[in-house]
Amino acid sequence: MATLEIDRDAAAKPLTSRSIDLKLEVIVIPVSDVDRAKAFYTRLGWRLDADFASGDEWRVIQFTPPGSACSVIFGKNVTPSAPGSARGLYLIVSDLEAARQDLLDRGIEVSEPFHGAGDVHAGRDEPYLFGSVRISGADPKRGSYGSFVSFSDPDGNGWLFQEVTTRLPGRIAGDGTTFASQAELAAALRRAAAAHGEHEMRTGGHDENWADWYADYIVREQAGQPLPS
What we know:
Elements: H1 3-12, E1 26-28, H2 34-43, E2 47-54, E3 58-64, E4 71-76, E5 89-93, H3 96-105, E6 114-116, E7 134-136, E8 148-152, E9 158-163, H4 182-203, H5 210-223
């Protein structure tokens, strides 16, 4: 059997058990000026986890975005990649407008909201994301995964905020009630409250079981299932 056929058979075989978790924990970004990069990511409000050095030849700094299980590291002699060559780094947010305003309040230059005409959402300033056309404004239907803003660090490493409110099936474990941060949970509760208010208007009365309704709404939303009416 050819190697290609073996690889195809292996890829098609379903995963029956998972004895080892593989958790993406660190992404390396190349920078030219370590202190300038440190000042930028500090201004973003990210948590500084480490700043280690060994003489004048090696230094590593680690930051973690709020609510993220994955961190970024940069420094001196940390990576051979060209400064600014890390592109298309996605940060998932539940409220694109609030996340963008937070950057503006911190004095960070950030694009206007945009959506894409294809599977990849690129603009002229992001040639590393090819195959699509950037369209001004958030997704008109405000569909989950559909709206973006972009910004860069001083070296040009490119970041995107992508708004995700409803996860695709299989993207989260369990019953769908795991949140990356308190802010994400609060946003989900606000959406549930707004939907429940419409529910009570339709049914014409006060729902004493609102807590159960909220829970059902949030679980369904995160699992990508039809929402309660």
